[in-house]
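Lab notes, practical 5.
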Amino acid sequence: MSGRCAIILAAALCLPAAAWGAGSGSGSPAPAVEGPGTSAKGLPDEESAPAGFPAIGYWMLAPDGRIADWLGYPHEGKRLLEPINVVIIDRYAASAAEASSRLLAACGKSAFPQREGHSSGYGARMGSMRYAQFPPGTEESFSDALFVLSNDHGRIFGPMKWKDAFYFSGAFSRESVDPVTKVKHRYVSFDRARDAFAVGLSERGGYEIAGYLVLGNAVTGSAMLSTGDHDGVAVLLSARP
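Output from the prediction step:
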């Protein structure tokens, strides 16, 4: 077992055995947070509303409003939908600008700085609104390696103020790069990239893994749609003071 996997597993074991839930922010675990199921229809407006949290959209949305699908490249013969698998909360920022600057600095410290070479212009739903990719830029995402190398990368959306906190959502994935093939950037994993980003932010970025939200956005039993290895779970990262 790798060091990263061990840390993720240890965090999961600290949560209720019935399901992965969200931390309450006071150090005591909240009840398990369940989503609507584990089979999605693949509609852009699908969302989950875990108790105590704002509604979180299932998907990363392409610039035209449709669900992002790895630029149309299929996975195992199916359309690959790109799920939201990260939720970030900042209860200490005094403004959206402060929450944004804190997160941007944390990503840089965590070996996930902004890097060029990735498509951009995406969005995601939170609450009743669609939020643009954060921060605005051209052909950039948060990534742990250059785009010419195999990498974990992701796009973050928000922030949205809900009650007394600022929320972001994110879609992270791992890709392999083979410059001699027709499809140079191939999908590898959603879960591995989610976990790598969570470990980086918790070890070096000033955030903590506060729990896991069962969004239920894993497609199962479909002949046409896939979410790869995604398990329907988003990691919940909470900013420290």
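Observations recorded by the TA: The two ends are 32 Å apart (CA to CA). The helical segments are 3-13, 96-109, 191-204.
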